């Protein structure tokens, strides 16, 4: 996905990957996402592999997928990628009924979440900006 702003000088190239309907609480996923937001791709991989949380594995797979989208679709180098935007949104709540004593039922609510990761390229971020000329 190429996102061009209205300005004639800047073009932003960013790639994104989304994973929807993950059976996980939004708060547990946000705890991991807050640690990787704004970091480089290689640093993110090291952080996610060493985190002891269950939420880190789907996020790690999603970061791998976003980097693969960047290299295959855009031809970007993985060494220059960084996470510009990472967000977790609440999804639908899966509701089930569990049988209990005396013919009653007990509701089970399983929350889901949607995770979006956007990667940008550091090397192409400042290349297209105009240079200011200072005259003396």
Automatic annotation (TrEMBL):
Transmembrane segments: none annotated. This protein binds specifically to 23S rRNA. The globular domain of the protein is located near the polypeptide exit tunnel on the outside of the subunit, while an extended beta-hairpin is found that lines the wall of the exit tunnel in the center of the 70S ribosome. CDD domains: Ribosomal_L22. It comes from Clintonia udensis (Japanese wood lily). The keyword Transport does not apply. This is Large ribosomal subunit protein uL22c. GO terms for cellular component: chloroplast; large ribosomal subunit. GO terms for molecular function: rRNA binding; structural constituent of ribosome. HAMAP family: Ribosomal_uL22_B. The lineage of its organism: Eukaryota, Viridiplantae, Streptophyta, Embryophyta, Tracheophyta. It is found in: Plastid, Chloroplast. One of its GO terms (biological process) is translation. Belongs to the universal ribosomal protein uL22 family. Part of the 50S ribosomal subunit. Coiled coil: none annotated. Keywords: Chloroplast, Plastid, Ribonucleoprotein, Ribosomal protein, RNA-binding, rRNA-binding. InterPro entries: Ribosomal_uL22 (IPR001063), Ribosomal_uL22_bac/chlpt-type (IPR005727), Ribosomal_uL22_bac/org-type (IPR047867), Ribosomal_uL22_CS (IPR018260), Ribosomal_uL22_sf (IPR036394). It holds the Pfam family Ribosomal_L22. The gene is rpl22. Its main location: plastid. The keyword Transcription regulation does not apply. It comes from the Eukaryota.
